[in-house]
Amino acid sequence: MKQFFKIFILSLVIFSLVTSVSIFTYVKYYSPDEMEQAETNENEDKDKNEEDMEFYTPLEKAMHSSDKINILLVGLEGPRSDTIMLLSFDKKTKKANLISIPRDTYYYREGYAKYSENQKINAVYGMEEDGINALIKAVEEVTGMPVDNYATIKYEGLRAAVEAIGGVEFDVPFHMKYTDPYDKPPLYIDIKPGKQSIKGDKALELLRFRKGDPGYPGYPNGDLGRVQTQQEFIKAAVKKAMGLKLPAVISAVYPHIQTDLTLTELLGLATDVIGFSAEKISTETLPGTDKYLGNLSFFLADGEEITKLVYEIYDLKLSAEAEQDNEAEAD
């Protein structure tokens, strides 16, 4: 039976947004000169970039001048990127958009059968020579948004993060019961419905669950339902982790994460992350629909709806809406 191991993304969100706060606090008191240099470099880069504004379309100009940083968050199951999310954090408003990209999203690559497993976006990371860079390119093409940095986490980081915050209070929507004795290791999921503390392996089971044993419910919309549960779990977990347990979370999760965020970049982000809260996370799923192609289930991204989403994220109006506003003002 096909495995569907969904890696918990909480650790990535916490690392990307709030690890920098602790680093900021440390450097501020022990390396003030480095802190000042990081802030100076950030201001100089922004002033330099503003010189080329006239060459960009409205959307590109907005992306170029915005205070957003877009971080690709990847949960790894072996060679596959089984969880893919794009986090867009606005350093000025301290708001974040978390876009889940279904693992079955169709992403055509030459050299493979047109409707094979290899045309799913979660196969890119482990099959391309440049790995994470190939996945970044795929995400940029699918979403139309630039990726500034990335962070990846493996299985071990999940248990470490959940244990560090003492579990997460979560309202399980229905009885999740699923058995797969042929999985490696064998999989037994049995989580009763209702509010409860989800800890350790239970978090793995909650987030990997999609369909139930005979006589038990599953998500009627498959992977999309699971994505929604993950997003709700993330919010609850981040809210708890932002408290006194944050240093313990950072210490527990850090060894399991790989990222291209440098210390200087973290320092530049740190001052803006202060004041961020879980309530400021807006979660979305990449617009699109499920469809069977060549006897396989794919998620087909909706380009038009994605464009609308990106415009909303960058606080822009589509040209038709802008024209209507202009006409209303003229009247």
Q: What does this molecule look like?
A:
The structure is a single chain. The protein has 331 residues and is an alpha+beta fold. 43% of the residues lie in helices and 22% in strands. The chain has a single domain (10-159, 246-330), classed as LCP protein (Aminopeptidase, 3-Layer(aba) Sandwich), CATH 3.40.630.190. The protein contains twelve helices and twelve strands. The strands form four sheets. The chain has a six-stranded mixed beta sheet with strand order 9-4-1-2-3-10, with helices on both faces. Strands 5-8 form a two-stranded antiparallel sheet. The protein has a two-stranded antiparallel ribbon with strand order 6-7. Helix 1 crosses helix 9, helix 1 crosses helix 10 (263-273) and helix 2 (32-49) crosses helix 10. The termini are far apart.
Model regions low in confidence, pLDDT < 50 over at least 5 residues:
1-31
**Residues in β-strands, percent:** 15-25%
For the record, the CATH architecture stands as 3-Layer(aba) Sandwich
CATH topology: Aminopeptidase
Order of strands, widest sheet: 9-4-1-2-3-10
Give the ordered list of helices and strands.
Answer: HHHEEEHHEHEEEEHHHEHEEEHH
Radius of gyration, Cα only, in angstroms? 21 Å
Proportion of helical residues: 40-55%
Task: Determine the mean pLDDT.
Answer: 76
What's the CATH class, please? Alpha Beta
What is the number of E strands? 12
Number of domains: 1
- What can be said about the biggest beta sheet? 6 strands, mixed
What separation lies between the terminal Cα atoms? 63 Å
The CATH superfamily name is LCP protein
Question: Structural class of the secondary elements?
Answer: alpha+beta
